[in-house]
Amino acid sequence: MQPGQEVVVSCQIEHASTARAVVCEAYRAAASRVVVRYADQHLRRAAIELGPQEMLGRSPEHVLDWIRSWRQKPPALISLTGDPEPELLGDLDPALVGKSEPHDERAIYLPLVGERLLNWTIASSPNPGWATTVFGEPDLERLWEAVATATRLDAADPVAAWHDHNEKLQARARQLNERGFDAIRFRGPGTDLTVGLLPASRWICAAIKTANGIEHIPNLPTEEVFTAPDWRRTEGTVRATLPLSVTGSVVRDLELRFAGGKVSDVSASEGADTVRAQLEADPRAAYLGEVALVDGDSAVKKTGLVFQNTLFDENASCHIAYGTGLPMALDGTDSLGPEELIALGINVSRVHTDFMIGGPRSTLTASTPMACRRRFCVTTPGCSRALGDVADGEPVQGRRQPPERAILCQQLRLGAPLGNATLLDDEDLVGPADGREPVRDDHRGAAA
Question: Where are the beta strands (DSSP E) in 3-94?
């Protein structure tokens, strides 16, 4: 936040102690005013069970007018997360739960985020309910310790640690951008998904800047490099590798099928109707808005925990999101309206739901446009190694490869300098359809 700027804190009532601390720090940093918006999921449940259906998800007009005013006078937004009762709404009609989402508010402020008018962040607020979800008991101290590790608060100098981490992520993003990828393909158990990218797509991460130059880190923690895919070019099937907490329910074993860019089929052992309700929230909710890569060095992943919280779990695994896209991932989009963004290939929706698809048996390959005929491949657990590329037919180790099969594989983590590479054929690199690690014959060298 900036001196003299208004601050808006959004949280659950169970986050009150953290919210109070945030308010104090904001005033110490010269905030002009701090507004805290408390929500109570039990009140939402009451509205769904007892209130008139036509009023679900309708915010008071004075609230909507206030959010509209952010375009002229942008506040700093701070959202606290950490669901104390992630399955509180799980026994209710998913269609009504979905309808109760504040879509009217999102329709106003999401474009402000996309236009980079707001400096904002999402941070955690550990609470006994969330601790019980993670550990099976309300061990709040243990959860705080895990959060501290995941967000580098246990470093000797957390601020310096975050600056170093941001620089590493920015280096990874630059490396990906230099290759100009056209598509990303994920493969693993239950997954064979190709996500097309836009010619102007940029990989971004960690710290971003508002249109007027305020640098901020939107997610704490963050371990991802991400971009906006072409909403028209997603094909195949994908299986979530972690549970998804969404709208008061937990979705388990989620599987989606995409055709022509759109989700055409949904299945899950629990919560499928909740996802279907989200995908029906508006005509564009069923298209992809984000693809993100997370490597094996993730501080969240190193905790060994499933937080059952998207902010944390998405930063331990490669993930995608259905719903609205990320205009900030393309230059020159700040002033574009919804129809212009859609025409450009960036999805626009009132929904944005991330779910995790990376795992120890996952593989990933990224291809450049056909004119370049190169591929970039990631084969290690959690998408944790970066692979380079080679020009068509380039001789390596005295051998020439057919242009369509030439792949240079590098055994380095994502973002590391290129080098020490070995040429592999596509069939050797990717391995079986079930996502197991590729194995090569002895005379052709070790597996990547």
Answer: 6-12, 33-39, 76-81
In a 3-state reduction of DSSP, which class is residue 140? helix
Predicted structure pTM score: 0.81
Confidence band for 370, pLDDT divided at 50, 70 and 90: low
74 secondary structure, DSSP code: P
Pairing, β 119-124 against β 76-81: parallel
CA distance 186 to 358: 8
Distance CA 93, CA 90 (A): 8
Q: Residue 47, class by beta-carbon neighbours within 10 Å (0-12 exposed, 13-18 middle, 19+ buried)? A: middle
Mean per-residue pLDDT over the chain, rounded: 83
Rounded CA separation 4/1 (Å): 9
Residue 440 near residue 425, CB atoms below 8 Å: no
3-class SS of residue 76 = strand
Euclidean distance between CA atoms 377 and 390, whole angstroms: 12
| Residue 381 scores a pLDDT above 90 | no
Angle at which helices 103-114 and 61-68 pack, to 10 degrees?
0
Domain locations along the chain:
6-356, 363-444
Alpha carbon dihedral 249, 250, 255, 259, in 10-degree steps, equals 30
Q: Which two tokens stand for residue 174?
A: 């630059």
Q: What is the pLDDT of residues 12-33, one digit of tens each?
A: 999 999 999 999 999 999 999 9
- Pinpoint the alpha helices (H) of 316-431: 338-344, 426-430
pLDDT higher than threshold 90 for residue 400? no
pLDDT digits (tens, 9 = 90+) for 325-338: 999 999 888 888 99
Taking residues 88-100, what's their average pLDDT? Answer: 93
- What is the topology classification, in CATH, of domain 6-356? Thermophilic metalloprotease-like (3.40.1830)
Task: Give the C-alpha separation, 306 to 322, whole Å.
Answer: 21
| 398: number of Cβ within 10 Å | 5
The string over 123-148, giving b where at least 16 C-beta atoms fall within 10 Å of a residue's C-beta and e elsewhere, is bbbbbebbbbbbeeeebbeebeebbe
